[in-house]
Amino acid sequence: MIHTKQRGLALITAMLVVAIAATTAAYLSLDQQIWLRQAQNLSDRAQAEAVRAGAIEWAVIILAKELKDKKTVDLTQNWAKPLPPLAVEGGQVTGQIADATARFNINNLVQNGAPSKDNIGIFQHLLLSLSIDPNLSDAVVDWIDPDSDKVAYGAEDLDYLQMKTPYRAANRPLTSVDELRLVRGFTPKIVEKLRPWITALPQNTTININTAPKEVLGALFYTLPPAAIEQLISQRPYADLSKITQTLPPPPAGASLPSQASYGIQSNYFEVTVVTQFGRYQRVTQALIQHGAVDSASRVLWHRQLLPTKIATSSAASGDKSNTTPDGHI
């Protein structure tokens, strides 16, 4: 009987030892798998970063080559053609360049330190076309202008300091469209609704007639019927600004066309969207390039990582439908 009990105890002990050994081996195997996955992710991320930098440099070269000595910027040029999925070692990359001045530059609302009546009118009609309160333009003007005088529906320091989380008005141009979320009256939903049709550039710019979508052109030429906007688009590209006014019908009695200072046929700012895929790691990067910045060269002003849901909106305003949380700045 004693020997039987000893054998049973030995068997149980052996089973416990095997169970502990198996559990330890499983934990070690899991740790090794996690370590290998982390190492692979780091490798994929490094490759994506290298390819991203190369793709943005490709965009700079394309713009410098394509637009050299060109008097117009339009969607028939090579820069407007998206880069199809290109296989690289271990993954793939796609890219697209969009004219940033195809959209309304929100910083145009204030020029030379004062509100710009023409641009405020354009922005208000863009807001109306999107079923957004046009009076929100006043809040943006107060956010940008250098003074503390509040316009009719605007907001200055005293208004922002009374908020649950107090802060002051910037009193300078916006650095990005996302900054609109800080402006009183602009909800995240409104900002996302506006995002495809507006931009925030470091200096005042004109809207490029050759690349702007009909939504932006409709706000620019708000005194004209939709049929006139369609006609304007159908006759692009324009090589001469005077041809534009010849194309457009006269505005209704008592109305007028926008000042030619509001639009043009050239651009110095381009947004580049690069999508890299390595294994399970996908990176979507957007960069702003200023063409002809110094000695006719191009330079990258900033780049940031986008959420995948923003891929479409980042290029939605590139013109024709067929060409349609910052992580670092340069």
How is the topology of this model organized?
Blueprint: H1 2-66, E1 83-88, E2 91-99, E3 104-105, E4 110-111, E5 114-115, H2 117-129, H3 136-144, H4 157-161, H5 188-194, E6 198-199, E7 207-208, H6 214-220, H7 226-234, H8 241-247, E8 263-264, E9 269-278, E10 281-290, E11 299-306, H9 311-315
Parallel strand pairs: 3-6, 7-8
Antiparallel strand pairs: 1-2, 2-9, 4-5, 9-10, 10-11
CATH class of the largest domain: Mainly Alpha
Strand order of the largest sheet: 1-2-9-10-11
Number of domains: 2
The CATH homology group name of the largest domain:
EpsJ-like
Number of strands: 11
Helix/sheet category = alpha+beta
Q: pLDDT average, as an integer?
A: 84
Order of helices and strands: HEEEEEHHHHEEHHHEEEEH
Spans with pLDDT under 50 lasting ≥5 residues?
A: 309-330
Q: Any overview of this molecule?
A:
- It is a single chain.
- The protein has two domains: 47-101 and 266-323, Pantoate--beta-alanine Ligase, Chain: A,domain 2, CATH 3.30.1300; 104-197 and 214-263, EpsJ-like (Ribonucleotide Reductase Protein R1, domain 1), CATH 1.10.40.60.
- Helices cover 38% and strands 17% of the residues.
- It is built from nine helices and eleven strands.
- The chain has helices spanning 2-66, 117-129, 136-144, 157-161, 188-194, 214-220, 226-234, 241-247, 311-315, and strands at 83-88, 91-99, 104-105, 110-111, 114-115, 198-199, 207-208, 263-264, 269-278, 281-290, 299-306.
- A five-stranded antiparallel β-sheet has the order 1-2-9-10-11. The protein has a two-stranded parallel sheet with strand order 3-6.
- A hairpin with an 8-residue loop joins strand 10 (281-290) and strand 11.
- Helix 2 (117-129) crosses helix 6.
- The longest helix is centred in the N-terminal third of the chain and has 65 residues, at 2-66.
- It starts with a helix and ends in a 15-residue tail after the last helix.
